[in-house]
Amino acid sequence: MQGKTFEEVLERFRTIPFHEDFDIIVAIANGGVVPAAILNQRLDIEIQLLKINLRDSTQKPKYDSPRLIAPIDFEFKNKRILLVEDRVKTGASLTLAVALLQGAKFIKTFAVNGNADYALYNEDCFKFPWIL
Predict the structure, then answer these.
(1) What structural domains does the chain harbor?
(2) Which residues pair with 118 in a beta bridge?
């Protein structure tokens, strides 16, 4: 699997244009946590976690479809949300997250790699430089 340097990825985080203002960053945990933290540094917006899981630590599916594994414990009604994931392959986790966040003013999706409203890359899988 090919890789990218941390500096190369950070440059994309620094320069991606956002066309909306957001009230809150919602990270799909666990993969969205690091990208959300980087976006927080740029946008200075609070981060909340949406605990959805599909895969185990070796990236093998644990369930047939993504599941909410902890209650939503933050206010999202009428908020403008930037929903953050690391990698979007099928979009199943994003689809579940959007359904769970019904009542938001709007939701825009962000992925480091994959198909989203905002994506740093949309190419073959690569190892993220923050993964040990």
Answers:
(1) 6-121 (3.40.50.2020)
(2) 110
